[in-house]
Amino acid sequence: PDSVPPLRNEAAAHVLRGRMKGIQGHCNSCYMDATLFSLFSCTSVLDSMLFKPFPLCDRNVQSILRDEIVNPLRKTGFVRARSVMHLREQLTDKGQCSSFTNAEKDPEEFLNLIMHQILGIEPLLRLQSGGQKEQDCYCYQIFMDKQEDLVVPDVQQLVERSFLSSDLKLVEIPSCFIIQMPRFGKEYKMFSKIIPSLELDITDLLLDSPRECCVCGNVATLECS
Question: Which residue ranges make up each domain of the chain?
Fold first, then answer.
């Protein structure tokens, strides 16, 4: 099958910026459009979803994702709503959920269906909360209380505060860290804007990771939240 590399730097701006660019929305598809754009437009870290012959893989879903959505997005910067609807129809058949073609869904539900149930990908994240049993997942959804000092936060701040409030740690460095921002859905958005962090420092989020003491500069032995 054809392979179109992800867009980078000036090429990304040239191909993706302007009118009639991106993934065309239709019938509450925004959650899926935003997720697909984030996963594939400018990175190849999840391209195994497009090419790897998974034992449990439904080849029809994989070919629609690759040939009708990802390749056109990377080649021309535009994907028709019809192509996304084609994928949504297949997910409706595979997921025993009739509302994938017309209702707004949670991005995590979409990712779990396509990555776990259809393509059989191993979980991307291993988390531990408060020393309890490890849990595997495909993405991390930011949960936190409204904080008055955060008016226009960046992703680094949100991830750190969310991990702290939930007493979470990453068990290992993830190969891919998919983060769902707290501004989705029609009814409520916690922040009007969120600044993308172009790099994410996860040093303080890693379980048992050696870190520098902020007082003496040696290897730290204690952690204060």
Answer: 9-118, 125-220
Topology of domain 9-118, per CATH? Cathepsin B; Chain A (3.90.70)
Give the start-end residues of each E strand in the chain. Answer: 22-23, 78-79, 125-129, 135-137, 140-141, 168-170, 179-180
Express the helix, strand and coil content of the chain in percent, nearest 5 each: 40, 10, 50
Q: What is the pLDDT of residues 101-116, one digit of tens each?
A: 888 888 999 999 999 8
What letters, b where the CB count within 10 A reaches 16 and e where it falls short, cover 167-178? ebbbeeeeeebb
- Per residue in 130-187, pLDDT (tens digit) is 878 899 999 999 988 888 888 899 999 999 999 999 999 999 999 999 999 887 666 6
Give tens-digit pLDDT for 51-83. Answer: 888 666 678 899 999 999 999 999 999 999 999
Q: Can you read off the two tokens belonging to residue 101?
A: 């073609």
203: which 2 tokens? Answer: 């040093």
Residue 29: CB atoms within 10 Å: 22
Instruction: Tell how strand 179-180 and strand 140-141 pair up.
Output: parallel
